[in-house]
Design goal:
This protein has 129 residues and is mainly α. The chain is built from five helices and two strands, in the order αααβααβ. It has one domain (2-117). It is elongated, with a radius of gyration of 16 Å.
Length: 129
C-alpha cells in the first residue's frame, strides 16, 4: 500500500501507512492486540519484561544497549512519525523526506524480523514484585 501511495505522489500518506504497518506487526508478533500506540511499543519492548527482544540475552551492557536503542527507535517511530503524520494532516512531506522516512521504517521492519519472542510479562500491579 505504501508503495502505491508513494508512486502516486501521496508522500505523507505513504509514510503514515508504513509506520502504521510497523505498529500492526509489533502487535501481531507480541500478541498484544489489546494495546495500541506507545503502550504497545513500551510493553512489547520493555526493558525489564519484553515480549520481543532485539538482543536475545540482554546480559551484557552492550546487549542491553542494543535492545534499548531499538526500543527507543521503535517508540520514536510511533510518536515522531506515525502519530504526527496521522494527526496533523497539514504536514507536507517532500519526495526526498518520504524516501528517508520509508528507508528508516524499512530498516525497522527488517530489525523486527529478527526479534525473538519471549513470554516475559509485566507482573500484575497488585502482585509483589
Amino acid at each position: 500500500m505504501s508503495t502505491a501511495l508513494f508512486r502516486d505522489g501521496h508522500y505523507r500518506e505513504a509514510v503514515q501507512k508504513a509506520a502504521e504497518r510497523f505498529n500492526a506487526r509489533v502487535a501481531d508478533l507480541s500478541e498484544r492486540h489489546d494495546l495500541t500506540g506507545g503502550s504497545l511499543i513500551n510493553n512489547a519492548f520493555s526493558e525489564t519484561h519484553p515480549l520481543l527482544v532485539f538482543s536475545e540475552t540482554r546480559v551484557t551492557l552492550l546487549e542491553r544497549d542494543w535492545h534499548n536503542g531499538y526500543r527507543f527507535l521503535a517508540l520514536g517511530l510511533h510518536l515522531g512519525i506515525r502519530n504526527i503524520y496521522t494527526h496533523d494532516l497539514d504536514i507536507e512531506v517532500s519526495r526526498t523526506e518520504a524516501v528517508e522516512w520509508l528507508a528508516f521504517i524499512s530498516g525497522m521492519h527488517r530489525r523486527l524480523d529478527r526479534t525473538t519472542q519471549t513470554r516475559e510479562r509485566e507482573p500484575a500491579t497488585d502482585e509483589p514484585v
